Amino acid sequence: VPLGALAAAELPVGPQQPTVLPYLDGTPSELFGLDLNLTVTINGHVVSSPRFRDMYWSPAQLLAHLTVNGASLRVGDIFASGTVSGPDQDSLGSLLELTWNGARPLDLGGDAPQGFLADGDLVTMTGWAPGRDGQRVVLGEVSGRVVAAG
After folding, report:
1. What is residue 45's predicted lDDT score, i.e. its pLDDT?
2. 44-57: buried (b, 16+ CB within 10 Å) or exposed (e) per residue?
3. What is the pLDDT along the chain (150 residues), one digit of tens a residue?
4. Contact assessment for residue 5 and residue 131, using Cβ atoms and an 8 Å cutoff
5. 32, 45, 94, 137 from 87: Cα distances, Å
6. According to the 3-state scheme, what is the secondary structure of the chain?
C-alpha cells in the first residue's frame, strides 16, 4: 500500500520515554504513527486484533533503526515492523504472549486447546486503515499453513 494512501490514518506517535537518541528524534510530521487495524486468525478463529497505533516506534524511526548500521533499502523493498502488540489481552501479537508461553492454551475449536501452532494450522492476517471520507483502505490478506517437516 503506498504511503500516500494512508494519509487519513496518520496520527501522532505516543510519548517515548526515555528520550530517544538524536538520530531518532524529529518533528511530528516526520514521526507520525499509523492507525492500522489488524486481525490474526488461526483456523478461522480470531485470536488477536492488534492496532499499529499502539506501536512505540514511528515508521520513520523503524526505517532509521533498519539503516543506521548500513542495511540497504531500495524502492520496492518490503518494509515491515515485526510483531505488533497492544496493551490488552486481545491485542497481543504473538502466540508466546497470547498463551503465556503455552501455559494458557487457546481454544481453536479442535480436540484440545493449543499453546502453539500445530501441523495443518492455517494462520491468516488481514488489515485495514481509515481512508478519506470515511472509506477504508484494505491492506489485504496473507495466509500460511503449517506443514509437517519432512
Report:
1. 95
2. eeebbbbbbbebeb
3. 888 999 999 999 988 999 899 999 988 888 999 999 999 999 999 999 999 999 999 999 999 988 998 999 898 888 888 899 999 999 998 999 999 999 999 998 888 999 999 999 999 999 999 999 999 999 999 999 999 988
4. yes
5. 20, 21, 13, 24
6. CCHHHHHHHEEECCCCCCCCCHHHCCCCCCCEEECCEEEEEECCEEEECCEHHHCCCCHHHHHHHHHCCCCCCCCCCCCCCCCCCCCCHHHCCCHHHHCCCCCCCECCCCCCCECCCCCCCEEEEEEEEECHHHCEEEEEEEEEECCCCC
- The set of cell numbers assigned to 72 is 540497504
The grid coordinates listed for 44 are 478461522
How many residues are recorded in the chain? Answer: 150
Q: Which amino acid is at 112?
A: A
